[in-house]
Amino acid sequence: MRSVLAGDRGSVTAEFAAVIPAVMLVLAGCLVCLQLGSQQLRLQDAAAVTARALARGDAAPAYEGAARTTSQSGDLLCATLALAAQPPLFVELRAQSCALK
């Protein structure tokens, strides 16, 4: 019986070593997605603050690294912020918010 099991010795360690890089890649992908989601939320909040400030006639705060465009349709003043693509995914983030004038 002992000689039959002797051939499997160390197989768990080899399988664990093969799985670790895949698990690390999945975890890294999850962290990047969380970072992008957080940055999108901050950009959306900044767009809302910018739209409200411009509608009141105040100076709009700047969001670092974002390009701002504004448009007006009737009583609505809309502000759009676009953040250029950044590593590691090179995804351009965009947020728009409108406020009544």
Q: What do you see in this structure?
A:
The chain has 101 residues and is of the alpha+beta class. The chain has one domain. It is 50% helix and 29% strand. The chain contains two helices and three strands. The protein has a three-stranded antiparallel β-sheet, with helices on one face. The longest helix has 46 residues, at 11-56.
TL;DR of this structure?
The chain has a 3-stranded antiparallel β-sheet with strand order 1-2-3, with helices on one face. By secondary structure, it is α+β, with helices and mostly antiparallel strands.
Give the biggest beta sheet: 3 strands, antiparallel
Shape: rod-shaped
Give the radius of gyration.
25 Å
- Measured between the Cα atoms of the first and last residue, the distance is 85 Å
Mean pLDDT: 88
Q: Classify the beta-strand content into a percent band.
A: 25-35%
List low-pLDDT spans.
Answer: none
What is the count of distinct domains?
1
Output the helix-strand order.
HHEEE
Count the helices. How many? 2
Number of strands: 3
Strand order of the largest sheet: 1-2-3
Structural class category: alpha+beta
Binned, the helix content reads: 40-55%
